[in-house]
Amino acid sequence: MRLRIAHTTHYQFGQPVAHGLQRLRLSPKTTQGQKVLAWQMSYEGAVEEVRFEDHNHNHVVLVSVVPGASEVIVRCEGVVATADNHGVIGQHSGYMPLWAFLAQTPLTRPGPKVRAIMSGLDVPRDEAVPMLHRLSALVREAVDYLPGETSVQTTAEEAATLGAGVCQDHAHVFIGAVRALGLPARYVSGYLMMDDRIEQEASHAWVEAHVEGLGWVGFDVANGISPDERYVRVATGRDYAEAAPVTGLSWGGGETRLAVSLAVEQQHQEQ
């Protein structure tokens, strides 16, 4: 499948910005199950400074905000060819050792509520893939999809206690539980083409767990499936903080308003 993606991020500042830097993880990479056919980025109110690969092997662009700018617009557009590999990405590669994905972070560290979810596991732990699918179902049952109740700072334990959250929270709860079971797990940010619409509400998040003999295997907890050809991987990390689409800092600017528009649709090739 060929997916066309158009993603615009629009920041408006209450006052002109004196100085600002933004780290953009908005460029998908060619990997198992996907091939980037075209991808371009453009900016208003910002200047590209450097491109590099971070420790998670993500494509990163660092931009500086033009001094005095009252808004920054980042536009991404491209085409990615995808295939359905049943969520299997394959063996580990990159700069981070596999054992690094066993360590909990402040966002994933499980507490009593996450461990209570794990207590419902009734699949033998030596059957890794069925166990992980069962764990995904338990997390989805315990944490209702409810936008507006959590933020990017919400931890896995907080979301589990609240019993509500979004795909980011499902991912953090699942990651914390998987690591507690002794398996490496990582956060994935990217795009999902919903079957009933072109305009999407936001980018998506899911998880990959490392299974012996298969390598990294994806689990979309929010939707209860493994990623298929409708998914495009953009960035990975130990949690949201390492795979966030945009992070940065600024001086001045006052109150900031953010608007995001995202369209993901299948591109039909001409015969």
From TrEMBL:
Residue intervals of the Transglutaminase-like domain: 159-223
Xref: SUPFAM superfamilies: Cysteine proteinases (SSF54001)
Species: Novosphingobium ginsenosidimutans
Pfam families: Bact_transglu_N, Transglut_core
Lineage: Bacteria, Pseudomonadati, Pseudomonadota, Alphaproteobacteria, Sphingomonadales
Top-level taxonomic group: Bacteria
InterPro entries the record matches: Bac_transglu_N, Papain-like_cys_pep_sf, Transglutaminase-like
Protein name (record): Transglutaminase family protein
Residue ranges crossing the lipid bilayer per the database entry: none
PANTHER family: BLR5614 PROTEIN-RELATED (PTHR33490), SLL1049 PROTEIN (PTHR33490:SF6)
